[in-house]
Amino acid sequence: MKVALIGTGLMGRPMGERVLAAGYHLTVFNRSREKAEPLRSSGAEIAATAAEAIGSAECVLLMLADG
Question: Residue 66: what pLDDT?
Answer without folding.
Answer: 83
